[in-house]
Amino acid sequence: MLNGPNLNLPGQQRTCVIRPRHARVVMNPGAFTHTSVALHDAIRGANVTLIELPISNVHARESFRHHSFISPAAPGIVVGLGVKGYGIAIDALVQVSEQK
Questions:
Q1: 35 to each of 18, 70, 79, 89, 98, how far by Cα in Å?
Q2: pLDDT tens by residue, 2-52
Q3: Residue 4 pLDDT
Q4: 2-99 belongs to which CATH class?
Q5: How far is CA 98 from the centre of its chain?
Q6: In DSSP terms, which residues pair with 51 in a beta bridge?
Q7: What residue spans define the domains of the chain?
Q8: pLDDT over 60 (residue 90)
Q9: 8 Å CB contact between 31 and 62
Q10: How far apart are CA 91 and CA 93, in angstroms?
Q11: Distance CA 58, CA 67 (A)
Q12: Could you please report the per-residue DSSP string of the chain?
């Protein structure tokens, strides 16, 4: 699982390197959701199966948060269920991966 930058960890950087043959990822990209074309390109280039997981309901927030650069690279999205969404996203990731 990967989370966006807003995790109450100021000044700390965490690096995650994924190198399996076929990576499966649940990602909360945080602010990168609506700002990072580079992250979209990296996901596509890495050929990972990804479920996007915005913890808050981004569609109930400011309009600039309604667009996701990550969604086109993901077979599924779980939105607005808080941290309970992680379990749902992991289950969905397993099901999507089994279909491939």
A1: 23, 9, 17, 22, 31
A2: 555 545 555 554 445 545 567 899 999 999 999 999 999 989 888 889 999
A3: 52
A4: alpha beta
A5: 19
A6: 26, 76
A7: 2-99
A8: yes
A9: no
A10: 5
A11: 9
A12: -EE-S-SS-TT--------SSS-EEEEE-GGGGGT-HHHHHHHHHHT-EEEE--SS-GGGS-GGGS--SSGGG-SEE--S-GGGHHHHHHHHHHHHHHH-
* Structural tokens at position 91: 């289950």
The owner of tokens 């990804």 is 50
Counting other chains too, the contacts that 3-8 makes at CB distance below 8 Å and 24 or more residues apart are 3/27, 3/28, 3/30, 4/28, 4/29, 4/30, 4/31, 4/32, 4/33, 5/30, 5/31, 5/32, 6/30, 6/31
Amino acid letter at 17?
Answer: V
